[in-house]
Design goal:
Length: about 130
């Protein structure tokens, strides 16, 4: 029997690189392939704890959409240009090993928080960089 054709996402003619983060009051959508890569939606869901089942009401809030002015650029190109500059000048690239370690630590903390019913997880040693 002939093996079926296997397709991978990198072969697809349209790329979907979208991340959605939903909070109780706002939602952020990051779309790397859009001219407006970040959109903040002033919307959320409220579900107050009712005393009885008959009192249960879910509320939805819908408001403004904000698209901050962010320069659109190919992220891989920017990262490689920064790396080449760091190699030539001997400086540390923005995407350093320390930043990579912090990303892994934060990802593990999120995973632990999810497994422990949204408990707050301490992340000692993780640096927060403001640009």
């Amino acid at each position: 029997m002939e093996e079926p054709l296997k397709l991978h996402s990198w072969l697809a003619p349209s790329k979907l690189r979208r991340t959605t983060i939903v909070g109780s009051k706002k939602m952020v959508v990051y779309d790397d392939a859009s001219n407006e890569p970040v959109r903040v939606f002033d919307s959320g869901v409220g579900a107050p704890i009712p005393a009885t089942f008959g009192e249960f009401r879910m509320t939805y809030g819908v408001g403004d959409i904000v698209s901050p002015n962010i320069e659109v650029a190919e992220r891989l190109y920017l990262e490689l240009a920064d790396f080449c500059t760091a190699v030539r000048s001997g400086s540390e690239p923005l995407s350093s090993t320390r930043l990579g370690l912090d990303v892994v630590r934060l990802t593990e903390a999120v995973d632990t928080s999810i497994r422990t019913s949204a408990a707050t997880i301490s992340t000692p040693g993780v640096l927060v960089q403001k640009r």
